[in-house]
Amino acid sequence: MTRALSSIACITLIFLGFSKVNGQLNSTFYDSTCPNVSSTVQAAVQQAIANEARMGASLLRLHFHDCFVNGCDGSILLDDSVNITGEKTAGPNNNSVRGFDVIDTIKSQVEAICSGVVSCADILTLAARDSVVALGGPTWTVQLGRRDSLTASLSTANSNIPAPTSNLSALISSFSNQGLSTQDMIALSGAHTIGQARCTVFRTHIYNETNINSTFASSVQANCPLSGGDNNLSPLDLQTPTTFDNDYYMNLMSQSGLLHSDQELFNGGSADSQVTTYSNNQNTFFTDFASAMVNMGNINPLTGSSGEVRTNCRKPN
Ligand code: HEM
Ligand SMILES: *[C@@H]1O[C@H](CO)[C@@H](O)[C@H](O)[C@H]1NC(C)=O
Ligand SMILES: *[C@@H]1O[C@H](CO)[C@@H](O)[C@H](O)[C@H]1NC(C)=O
Ligand SMILES: *[C@@H]1O[C@H](CO)[C@@H](O)[C@H](O)[C@H]1NC(C)=O
Ligand SMILES: *[C@@H]1O[C@H](CO)[C@@H](O)[C@H](O)[C@H]1NC(C)=O
Ligand SMILES: *[C@@H]1O[C@H](CO)[C@@H](O)[C@H](O)[C@H]1NC(C)=O
Ligand SMILES: *[C@@H]1O[C@H](CO)[C@@H](O)[C@H](O)[C@H]1NC(C)=O
Ligand SMILES: *[C@@H]1O[C@H](CO)[C@@H](O)[C@H](O)[C@H]1NC(C)=O
User: Could you identify the atom of ligand 8 that is nearest to the CA of residue 216?
Assistant: First the structure.
């Protein structure tokens, strides 16, 4: 009996511990203070994607690059200033991340309906989900209540965001360092079913590596010369770059991953079977992607009275 009671007490403590780790995010956080935030963000994201279909990809990636640097705290949105060295010029971000104007537009619309209430970090999380939905992907319930950082970290952006030259074990440990499983990593990589990459990040893969489909390699080489054209773009999913589907995994199985890191997920290693599953079953991919996005959104949020709700996403109040 005593033993039963103490294990109940122990389990209760574990549960309290876990809810604390996740920083008390919940899906109803703004229900009384800004009931229209979701519809406002969704409409603005739909408008931005109607203006430019690639924007959905760019907003999704911004959320990822935010969360991997000291948690999902809007740090990536901060501009460089006399007081702050931002993350925008970090290697993985410089000349690459985009969508800041769209976030500014959404923020000003949200400020207009409920001033000083909704954080930039939450806006980015909602915008990432709405982007996936707008491009035909799965939906999920977004956990809310993140607050915005007062600082940014260029060096952490450089060390934590995985590089396109990464091998499978480096990808696994990069995600594991953020508390994300290998299964989450493989599912989240399916985000590369949308968006574009610059020649400079895949040149070596398409010219110098052997685990690549020669027909595919020739077709992307056409717009990515051996020298020059560093910023020329190629779709991460050649077939449907503005549709969120499971083509990414089918591409990997025909050795047509654009990045070295993409093809690492189907290269005779431990990720092959999950890639095969997702290529055969889009619903399984969608379910796992949605759940992995919630996990990524839970990385180390600022909650309670930590941080602040920024008025302008580009600078602390
Ligand atoms: C697994 C490790 C990952 C690596 C090594 C990686 C690397 C890259 C690189 C190099 C680019 C092209 C950037 C450029 O050339 O400007 C890119 C684009 C992109 N990444 Fe990833 N990525 C990874 C995971 C993710 C995750 C987890 C997400 C989101 C859940 C994501 C979403 C995107 C999107 C949507 C784009 C296209 C962005 C656009 O068109 O603006 N990536 N990624
Ligand atoms: C959501 O979180 C906030 C802040 O922690 C809290 O005030 C609110 O009661 C929570 N709502 C639910 C339904 O748990
Ligand atoms: C909330 O949005 C709905 C439609 O999306 C609108 O009818 C309503 O007036 C809005 N409410 C507030 C308080 O802005
Ligand atoms: C930098 O910090 C100082 C002191 O907090 C503040 O007065 C100033 O407005 C800040 N400058 C910028 C550009 O944020
Ligand atoms: C970022 O890109 C710009 C423009 O290409 C370049 O001048 C600058 O040196 C880069 N910054 C860093 C930190 O690499
Ligand atoms: C993977 O990359 C890491 C870091 O670059 C390196 O230390 C490791 O030896 C590589 N592993 C394999 C199996 O190639
Ligand atoms: C291919 O590899 C050779 C030998 O390592 C190297 O000199 C060359 O720069 C590489 N080319 C590309 C496009 O990466
Ligand atoms: C290479 O790509 C083509 C066109 O997508 C495909 O038909 C072929 O099966 C692929 N080859 C291999 C070895 O996967």
Answer: 2
* Nearest atom, ligand 6, residue 169 CA: 1
Q: Which of 63, 65, 192, 205 is catalytic?
A: 65
Contacts of 234 (CB under 8 A, 6+ apart): 196, 197, 199, 202, 220, 223, 224, 258
Q: What architecture does CATH give domain 185-284?
A: Orthogonal Bundle (1.10)
**Residue 315 beta carbon below 6 angstroms from any ligand 4 atom:** yes
Identify which of 52, 107, 68, 59 has the alpha carbon closest to the alpha carbon of residue 314.
107
Span 124-146, pLDDT tens digits:
999 999 999 999 999 999 999 99
Domain with CATH 1.10.520.10 in the chain: 2-161
CATH number of 2-161: 1.10.520.10
* Radius of gyration of the chain measured on its C-alpha atoms: 20
CB of 81 sitting under 6 A from ligand 4: yes
pTM above 0.85, yes or no: yes
The ligand 3 site (C-beta within 6 Å) comprises 36, 39, 113
